[in-house]
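I have been asked to look over a protein record a colleague put together. Alongside the sequence sits a line of tokens, each denoting a local backbone shape. Please read both lines and tell me whether the tokens look consistent with the sequence. Take the sequence as given and treat only the tokens as open to question. I have pasted the whole thing underneath without changing anything:
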Amino acid sequence: MRICGIDLKANNTIVSVIENNEEDDILVYVDMKIKKIELANDENQSDVDKYFESINSFLRSNKIEKVFIKKRAKKGNFAGGAVTFKMEAMIQLNDVCEVSFVTSQSIGAYTKKNNVELPTSLNKYQEQAYLASIVTLPSL
């Protein structure tokens, strides 16, 4: 099963893909060429259409079966920006796979409970997306 973890920051969708072989339960990080998908201008309809098509194309061409988005606060000091919620809605509207959410608390608890080793080819900015993709899997 191919799983995509997503972390939304400003106008960027940061992606990390893992593959979980259910037969022998081996988890493998897939080092993709695309690591970010950008929404250039959220007020421009053609840019929004291009972003939506880019998301669908990425999910389809990489045979993603499940997406996990790291949740952001809706209000308060650490609230996500309005653009991130617009991007989130477009990801949820994809016609390729199911989308679920993962809380920061779940990610924190998972990393404390499990000895998580980050792949060496993973960029620093992709860490939260990677953790969002593995947190729902059984303990490693």
Remarks:
- Helices lie at 45-61, 82-92, 104-113, 127-134.
- The beta strands are 2-9, 12-21, 26-30, 36-38, 66-70, 98-102.
- The first helix runs from residue 45 to 61.
- The first strand starts at residue 2 and ends at 9.
